């Protein structure tokens, strides 16, 4: 599977600050001057680990934890290279289907493109149950109550401002069937999502993900809501 670094500018900034900071720290001959640059390098390493490995573990464990029938209809918001889409597709058989949508912005994930994700689908051999298209999560081109599950992994936080994030949540609930599940994996605004969904869903739970979900100092949390 072709992968990309999420928000690639962030670890570059961490690493650059760390490397540049080592120069005056070395010249000073004082150990405490190494604290900041070394911290920046550690943040860069944890970020890259989560982006290249940790998030895939979180996604796999989350998908495995769900009661996902083989004939489910699933929507993946902000699919990127298809980490969620491909994991879900492994569980499905026709007429089950998973659809991934994205605006394919490279600032959100390096090498992000419709063609790259289509190649990942073909390489995984799941083309019979998986497809992708260009669409905006705040204005979904699907009928109401179309999907059994809606996923959004590291995607909704890219929608700004808050009012548009609420619109994305509203759209996700609109296309979700009654008693369907909305699963959000994110590092920002999870409390905001939780407050919006409580009262609109039967159940809402949130859990942390440990070292595999650390984006620098920001932890990943998994929110699961039953409509």
UniProtKB/TrEMBL annotation:
Classification via Pfam families: Methyltransf_11
Q: One GO BP annotation here?
A: methylation
Q: Which domain of life is it from?
A: Bacteria
- The residue ranges crossing the membrane are 7-25, 31-50
Q: What are the record keywords, sorted?
A: Membrane, Methyltransferase, Transferase, Transmembrane, Transmembrane helix
Q: Which residues form the Methyltransferase type domain?
A: 75-184
PROSITE patterns named among the record's database cross-references? PROKAR_LIPOPROTEIN (PS51257)
One MF annotation (Gene Ontology) recorded for this entry: S-adenosylmethionine-dependent methyltransferase activity
This chain belongs to which protein, by name? Methyltransferase domain protein
Provenance organism: Limosilactobacillus antri DSM 16041
């Amino acid at each position: 599977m072709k992968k990309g670094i999420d928000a690639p500018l962030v670890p570059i900034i961490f690493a650059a600050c760390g490397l540049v900071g080592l120069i005056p720290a070395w010249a000073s001959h004082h150990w405490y001057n190494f604290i900041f640059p070394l911290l920046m390098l550690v943040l860069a390493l944890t970020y890259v680990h989560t982006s290249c490995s940790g998030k895939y573990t979180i996604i796999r464990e989350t998908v495995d934890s769900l009661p996902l029938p083989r004939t489910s209809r699933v929507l993946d918001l902000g699919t990127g290279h298809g980490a969620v889409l491909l994991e879900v597709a492994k569980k499905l058989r026709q007429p089950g289907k998973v659809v991934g949508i994205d605006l394919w912005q490279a600032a959100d994930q390096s090498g992000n493109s419709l063609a790259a994700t289509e190649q990942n689908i073909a390489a995984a051999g799941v083309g019979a149950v998986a497809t992708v298209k260009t669409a905006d999560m705040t204005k979904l081109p699907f009928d109401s109550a179309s999907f059994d599950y809606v996923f959004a992994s590291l995607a909704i936080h890219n929608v700004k401002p808050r009012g548009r994030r609420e619109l994305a949540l509203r759209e996700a609930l609109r296309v979700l069937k009654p008693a369907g599940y909305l699963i959000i994996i994110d590092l920002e605004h999870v409390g905001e999502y939780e407050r919006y969904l409580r009262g609109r869903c039967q159940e809402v739970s949130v859990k942390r993900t440990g070292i595999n979900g650390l984006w620098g100092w920001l932890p990943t949390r998994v929110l699961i809501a039953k409509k």
